[in-house]
Specification:
Radius of gyration: 22 Å
Mean pLDDT: 81
Structural class: mainly alpha
Strand order of the largest sheet: 1-2
Distance between the termini: 31 Å
Number of helices: 8
Order of helices and strands: HHHHEEHHHH
Shape: elongated
Largest sheet: 2 strands, antiparallel
Number of domains: 1
Length: 246
């Protein structure tokens, strides 16, 4: 039982930050039961030896190292899943509906409606690619590359995680680029019209035009955005693999 609880620290920490598993809509007993089931698989596939004493300083340090590895595995994927929220902020602000917020089922916090829609779409693509199974496989492999007792992440690995944080902004910008560029051109045209014809009430024209152009642009750009979301999922999984198999 002590060995199982020790293994569940890394698995549970990974599921706290990982997408899908870390959603607030997933009940806590389900997470615990899932961590225990995967912990049994880990004990069957890898010879894990827990610390001899439960209440000891070395045990607390080993538990902290296990939690750090698990949080790193889940956090890397969570960085990739932040790209749709950034893209939703850009698109929603350009369309004039940045105030349209909804409760995100993944985090339980308020987020833009467009960003939440793109995030749900990315989650469905993640599940269709068996990303959740790949994550479980990465957790199992992490016990070979980072066995208990030698599970501290190196400075290079921590640097790679920090540098990968910039990928969320890059991917969010590229994801919003087709729609955002069209809306930027529309805003430029409306700006020139407002300078050339100040008597026109462009506020009554600009918002409906931005909404209509944004909806049409989203409908046209959905295939390209879906293909790029697949790239985002693969980049997140590849980064997780490099973190484990370094």
């Amino acid at each position: 039982m002590w060995a199982l609880l020790f293994v569940m620290v890394r698995v549970g920490a990974a599921f706290v930050f990982a997408p899908v598993f870390g959603n607030v809509s997933v009940p806590l007993p389900v997470r615990v039961a899932l961590s225990g089931a995967i912990g049994v698989l880990v004990l069957g596939a890898n010879p894990v030896t827990p610390p001899a004493q439960v209440f000891a300083l070395a045990t607390f340090v080993a538990v902290a190292a296990e939690a750090l590895v698990g949080l790193a595995l889940g956090f890397v994927l969570q960085i990739a899943f932040a790209a749709p929220l950034i893209a939703g902020e850009i698109i929603g602000g350009s369309m004039g509906i940045g105030f349209a917020n909804m409760i995100d089922p993944n985090s339980g916090r308020s987020s833009p409606a467009i960003g939440q829609f793109l995030s749900i779409l990315l989650t469905l693509l993640f599940l269709s690619l068996d990303g959740h199974l790949v994550l479980v496989d990465m957790v199992l492999r992490s016990y070979r590359a980072l066995p208990p007792g030698a599970a501290w992440l190196t400075a290079g690995q921590l640097r790679d995680i920090a540098l990968f944080g910039g990928y969320a902004f890059l991917a969010g910008l590229l994801l919003a680029l087709p729609v955002g560029f069209l809306l930027l051109c529309l805003n430029l045209v409306l700006g020139m019209l407002s300078r050339s014809a100040p008597a026109l009430n462009l506020f009554a024209i600009g918002l409906p035009a931005s909404l209509a152009a944004g909806v049409v642009a989203l409908a046209i750009a959905f295939p390209a955005m879906g293909d790029f979301m697949l790239v985002i999922v693969r980049e997140g999984l590849d980064m997780t693999q490099r973190l484990v198999l370094r």
